[in-house]
Design a protein that fits this description.
Strand 3 and strand 4 form a beta hairpin. The chain is globular, with a radius of gyration of 22 Å. A four-stranded mixed sheet has the order 7-6-8-9. The protein is built from 20 helices and nine strands. 48% of the residues lie in helices and 8% in strands.
């Protein structure tokens, strides 16, 4: 789009940043309906399961070492798994834990998606720093979830080369401001300052690096730093979104959200993962597993595997706009490669963290089988996305036989949200080997009863995983 075609920036009146600040200020815990409150707590437990599983992974260890080296001043915030740091580095490290294994929630906004759980580590840190209750944490986190989701639904950033974490700086600013109980003026300044942190989409392009699992923690680091500067009176660019040379002009699209009428309804389009891969790949993996369960053939007899998917699944994991997906050697390659994921699903009967270990990825059986997978975008499936998450998989065998299966959702999709029992099962699976059964039960009980405890109570349990 040429400069002349870009929308003229609005430079008078209330700004989008002020609208976000007003929204954050007016939201209360009571604005969450019981059903949406339950879905938020399910996402919190899901996020903590991911975080616990990621403790000790080499990239998160690097983050931990930096938090311990540079985050010692005013170290009142808990690092999940043990230790303390200041609020800035606690936000950074705990966000890295939640995000790194790529097993967390997603909001499906149509043209765009985001991971609202990227807000959890930062909002937890701000709430612990400020001595907030579990109710106050849920309200602040709901604000962050809604701000990120509303921006995702109203402005497709990825089409213009900006990462899906672009919205995160605004949402962390809003949620942390709510947690710190900043007034509207300082909350707006926080949004304005944090909105100047813009990540690039190159992080998701083949070859994928470890930074894919950490770039949201960089947003948390910068955003919490910015929020505290705003709390001390530092001002930001008022029209950071819609002004001259602001975000809207950078993406060539008008970004106008009616914040006065935004409600806490993003949870209705929230998806959780049953399998350890990107959210667009979930339905194809589920379809493949269902096909093999119905027709238990020997994977050694496979001649070809054909997967028809919606466009986002093709782009992220099938060989579309983010690059080819048949050269798979690392976790980062594997969890965003449908050829690998479908192959390992047929061989192992599941796609969990074990299927993304380097030793599993390197085995000849899966390396050979993934080369037989073809992924295609289907216009009909794309037209029905995200209301339906359709996938169709066809397997052809050496004896001339073939099997086809098609599905439109999976457990964890917005139309089939996890029950508390289902999220407990996922939590237990991810936490196994990383903490004790006693600690697992304490964490589940704490999240279940967040309204009745302090954030510090939850963080104490999370600091004692081996206790």
């Amino acid at each position: 789009m040429s400069t002349s075609e870009k929308p003229k920036p609005i430079i008078t009146g209330d700004s989008q940043a002020q609208g976000i600040a007003k929204f954050a200020s007016r939201v209360t815990y009571g604005d969450l309906t019981p059903e949406r409150r339950e879905r938020l707590k399910v996402s919190v437990l899901d996020s903590l399961a991911c975080a616990i599983n990621a403790v000790g992974a080499p990239p998160t260890v690097a983050c931990l070492e930096q938090a311990k080296q540079f985050g010692g001043s005013d170290a009142r915030c808990t690092l999940i798994g043990g230790g303390k740091a200041n609020v800035v580095y606690a936000a950074q490290y705990n966000t890295a834990l939640v995000r790194y294994i790529d097993f967390m929630d997603s909001y499906l906004g149509g043209e765009e998606l985001c991971h609202p759980s990227d807000n959890v580590g930062a909002v937890l840190a701000a709430c612990e720093h400020a001595g907030r209750s579990g109710k106050e944490f849920l309200a602040a986190l709901a604000v962050a979830y809604q701000v990120e989701s509303a921006l995702t639904a109203n402005a497709p950033f990825m089409a213009d080369g900006f990462d899906l974490t672009t919205q995160l700086s605004f949402s962390i600013a809003a949620g942390a401001s709510k947690a710190l109980q900043l007034d509207e003026a300082r909350s707006a300044a926080a949004v304005e300052i944090c909105g100047d942190v813009i990540p690039l989409l190159v992080v998701r392009t083949t070859p994928i690096s470890q930074w894919k699992g950490l770039n949201s923690s960089q947003a948390a680091l910068a955003s919490i730093h910015g929020v505290f500067l705003a709390s001390r009176g530092v001002t930001g660019p008022k029209y950071v979104i819609e002004g001259p040379n602001g975000l809207a002009q950078a993406v060539g699209k008008s970004i106008q959200v009616d914040w006065d009428n935004i409600k806490l309804d993003c949870f209705d389009r929230l998806a959780l993962k049953s399998y350890n891969t990107a959210i667009p790949a979930q339905s194809a993996v589920f379809c493949t597993l269902a096909l093999h369960k119905a027709h238990p053939f020997d994977p050694a007899d496979i001649v070809s595997i054909e997967a028809d998917v919606f466009q986002d699944a093709y782009d992220f994991t099938g060989g579309g706009r983010f690059g080819p997906k048949h050269d798979v050697h690392t976790k980062e390659d594997a969890d965003h490669s449908l050829p690998y994921l479908l192959a390992v699903a047929l061989l192992d009967g599941d796609v969990q963290t074990a299927q993304l270990e380097a030793s599993r990825i390197a085995k000849r059986d899966v390396q050979d089988l993934l080369q037989k997978v073809t992924v295609r975008p289907n216009d009909g499936f794309t037209a029905r996305y995200p209301a339906e998450l359709q996938s169709r998989v066809t397997v052809r065998l050496q004896n001339g036989g073939s099997f086809t299966h098609e599905i439109s959702d999976y457990a964890g999709a917005p139309t089939r949200p996890f029950t508390w029992k289902e999220i407990e099962a996922k939590f237990d699976k991810l936490a196994a080997g990383h903490t004790t059964e006693k600690s697992c039960q304490k964490i589940k009980n704490a999240v279940r009863s967040l309204e009745d405890i302090q954030v510090s109570d939850l963080m104490t349990i999370l600091s004692e995983l081996k206790g």
